[in-house]
Amino acid sequence: MSTIPRLRKPKPPQVSRALTPATIPDDAWADEKTLKAMLYEGTDFSGAQIYACDVEESRLEAVRLSNASLEQVIISDAVIERCDFANVQGRDVSLLQSSLEGCRLMGSAWSDGLFRDLVFSECRMDLSRYRQSKLRQVVFERCDLRQADFQWAELTHVRFSGCDLTAAQFANARMSSVLFENCILDGVGGVTGLKGATVQSQDLTSLAPSLAHELGITLAD
Questions:
Q1: CA torsion angle for 205, 206, 208, 213 (degrees, to 10)?
Q2: Angle at 21 (CA atoms; ends 19, 26), nearest 5 degrees
C-alpha cells in the first residue's frame, strides 16, 4: 500500500496590520526600491520594466502587471487577490511566503526563480513557464495549469490538488515529496520527470497513455 508523503506546509504570509494605501507615482514599483506595508488596489503596472524592487508585508488587490518585465524582484509576505500577471516575463524573481487567490498568470514566464511557502488557489496559470526555477513548500489548489512548463524545475514539498495539468511538461524536472491528488494529467509530457512524486491511484489512469508513449509501449484496443 502506497504512503502519502508528509509535505511541509507553506508558512502563511505575515502582512502588516497597518497598511498604507499606495499613491502613484510615489509608491510605484521601480528599480532598486523597497516598499513595505502597502495596500495596492486596482493599480496598473502593465508593461512596466522593473529591476531589483522589493515588496514586503503588503496586500495586492486587482493589481495589473500584465506584459511586465521583472528582474530580481522580490515579493514576500504578501496577500495577492484577483491580480493580473498574464504574460509577465520574470527572471530571477523571488515570490516568498505569500498567497495568491483568483489570479491570472497565463502565459507568464519565470526563469531561474524561487517560489517558497506559497499557496496558489483557483488561479488561471495555463501556458505559464517555470524552467530552472525552484519551488519549495508550494500548494496549487484548483488551478488551471494546462500546458504549464516545469521542465528543468526543482520541486520540493509541492502539492497539486484538484488541478488541470493537461499537456503540462515535466521533462528533466527534479522532484522530492511531491503529491498529485484529484488532478487531470491527460497528455502530460516528460513523465519520467515525475520520478519521486506520488500520484493518487485515481489520477494514474489519465497519466498511463503518456507513460506508455515514453516507454515505447503500444496500447492495444
A1: 160
A2: 120
Q: Please give the model's pTM, rounded to 2 decimal places.
A: 0.91
Query: What number of residues does the chain have?
Result: 221
Residue 191 phi, psi dihedral angles, 5° rounding = -65, -20
Compute mean pLDDT per 10 residues along the chain, 221 residues long, and list them.
76 95 96 97 97 98 98 98 98 98 98 97 98 97 98 97 96 95 92 87 66 56 60
Q: Identify the CA nearest to 170 among candidates 204, 136, 131, 202.
A: 131
> In the prediction, which pLDDT does 5 show?
73
DSSP letters, 104-134, are: B-TT-EEET-EEEEEEEES-B-TT-B-TT-E
Longest alpha-carbon distance in the chain: 65
Give all domains of the chain, ordered by start, each with its CATH number. 20-214 (2.160.20.80)
